[in-house]
Amino acid sequence: MNENEIATIIVDAAFTVHKALGPGLLESVYEGALTHELTKRGLIVHRQFAIPVIYDGVTFDEGFRADLMVNNLVIIELKSVENIHPVHKKQLMTYLKLGEKKLGFLINFGAPLLKDGISRIANGVDDWGDRRGSR
Fold it and tell me: Is residue 45 a contact partner of residue 39, using CB atoms and an 8 Å limit?
């Protein structure tokens, strides 16, 4: 299964969770519910996935933690806030670069309409899945 196939399942599962629970709950609740929903659909999901930082040949495990890693290919960063800020997208792009992943989703379950709360972030990949190199 490639990133785009996984992405389709992620978006559908996020809509299912948002429809069932609505906006305004704690991020951890959505993390658990989305993990459950993705696992039901046959995906492998790791919560609070460690993304180390490598500096000068030394690995620092106290790097970052992505909310969800799906099939070791797609990173999901979850929020439950009124508004997404540019720093949230930068955070996900940093995770993608450090983890050497091509695709991630920033999902804000705080949005009244989830379609307004989903951002697809690509690290050097166009919509057809072709590698272009990181910017």
Answer: yes
Question: Mind listing the pLDDT tens digit for each residue in 61-107?
Answer: 777 899 999 999 999 999 999 999 999 999 999 999 999 999 999 99
Name 17's bridge partners: none
Helix or strand or coil: residue 98?
helix
- Total domains in the chain come to 1
In 3D space, the residue among 17, 10, 73 whose CA is nearest the CA of residue 42 turns out to be: 10
Instruction: Give me 1's structure tokens.
Output: 């299964």
| Rounded average pLDDT over 127-134 | 43
For residue 134, tell me if it sits in a domain.
no
Task: Give this prediction's pTM.
Answer: 0.88
* Token couple for 87: 């720093």
Q: Helical H runs in the chain?
A: 3-21, 27-40, 86-99
In CATH, what number is assigned to the domain containing residue 97?
A: 3.40.1350
The whole-angstrom distance between residue 130's C-alpha and the CA centroid of its chain comes to 20
CA distances from 84 to 38, 48, 52, 81, 94 (A): 23, 20, 25, 7, 16
